Amino acid sequence: MQEKKPAGTTLKSFLVAIPIAVVAVQWLLSKSVVPGLQTEVFQVARLSWLETPYAYLYLHIFTFVPIFLLSFDKNVHYYTRWRYLLPAITLVAAFFIGWDALFTARGVWGFNDTYVLGIHFADLPLEEWLFFFIVPFACVFIYECLNFYVKKDWLGPYDKQITIGLAVILLLVGGWYWQQLYTVSACLLSAALLLYHLFFLPVSWRGRFYLAYAVSLIPFLLVNGVLTGGYTQQPVVLYNPEEMIGFRLTSVPVEDSAYGFLLILGVVTLYERFRGGPQKSTQIVQTV
After folding, report:
1. Which of 94, 111, 123, 209 has its CA 20 to 30 A from that of 101?
2. 124 in helix, strand or coil?
3. For 136-159, what is each residue's pLDDT tens digit?
4. What are phi and psi of 197, to 5 degrees?
């Protein structure tokens, strides 16, 4: 006779599924919109050398090359983790590329041909495909460096509180702005992953991830600042203002922080799973 799942487990699964279902319905019901992509945004500074079809590619080169060279550092030995990292990045990138292609087709965002090479796959520039591999590659490097050089897990004792707090905030924002497709998608999918962590993943590395993500926000926002027009005459990535809140950190839509959080947490979750990262006792899950 098949053993029944505890009622608590069923409820937790339901709570994780709700935000995913809301986003799925929005994706199914949303229609292609008339192009209304925003070209005028706040500019931090104008960098004339970025006014080129190589602008997006330059960002990838400046991000990838230093990290690649530092991967052979004698302390962190980042290159030894690539066999776990690359499959994790590839799996998460597949989901994000599909999401990206859908939103491009629906007019939620688009790309400025002035700043890309002109090589497209599934209506996405080659550079956009590379984004989902290079940015996680760099962010996980930051995560591993902090794991090595910062011995104390400063946020570990507050892991549960941070996870709950972030999930609640994301659920509230995503629920309030449920008609803005980018906002509801980035917020509710991030909240769903956090709830899954809270209920079903008794891992000990989450506090260290939160610290690493906070640190990586600095370069992440700088890179996104270039992509969103903070340093160029027009944005590389153009957004439809009708599909997001409209609040920006300089030129970067606030939704990008949730989008990036989902991307990096998704990669680190699989990365730690593949390499058999440290786990807490499964009894901890039962106390949530």
Report:
1. 209
2. strand
3. 999 999 999 999 999 999 999 999
4. -60, -45
Residue 217, token pair as written in the block: 């926000």
Q: Give me the sign of the Cα torsion angle 97, 101, 103, 108.
A: positive
Where would I find the beta strands (DSSP E) of 134-259?
A: 237-239, 248-249, 252-253
- Report the C-alpha gap between 74 and 57 in whole angstroms: 29
Give the span between the Cα atoms of 124 and 111, in whole angstroms: 8
251: helix, strand or coil: coil
Which secondary structure element, helix H or strand E, spans residue 109, and what is its range? strand 109-111
Rounded distance between C-alpha atoms, residue 208 and residue 216, angstroms: 12
| The token pair that represents 97 in the structure block | 């590329």
Dihedral sign, Cα of residue 78, residue 80, residue 83, residue 88: negative
> What DSSP state is assigned to residue 203?
B
How would you write 36-83 as a 3-class SS string? Answer: CCECCCCCCCCCHHHCCCCHHHHHHHHHHHHHHHHCCCCCCCHHHHHH
Q: Give the residue ranges of the chain where pLDDT is below 50.
A: 1, 280-288
Number of domains in the chain: 1
Structural element, H or E, at residue 111: strand 109-111
| Domain hosting residue 132, numbered range | 36-286
How many whole angstroms separate alpha carbon 258 and alpha carbon 224? 13
The DSSP call for residue 282 is T
Residue 68 is assigned to a structural domain of this protein? yes
Asked whether residue 122 is domain-assigned, the answer is: yes
- Using CA atoms of 96, 228, 113, 184 in order, give the dihedral in degrees to the nearest 10: 40
Contact 280, 202 (CB under 8 A): yes
The answer to whether residue 18 is domain-embedded is no
The model's pTM is 0.92
* 5 within domain boundaries: no
Residue 203 vs residues 1, 94, 154: alpha-carbon distances, Å: 32, 25, 15
Q: Look at residue 60 in the predicted model and tell me its pLDDT.
A: 97
Q: Are 46 and 232 in contact (CB under 8 A)?
A: yes
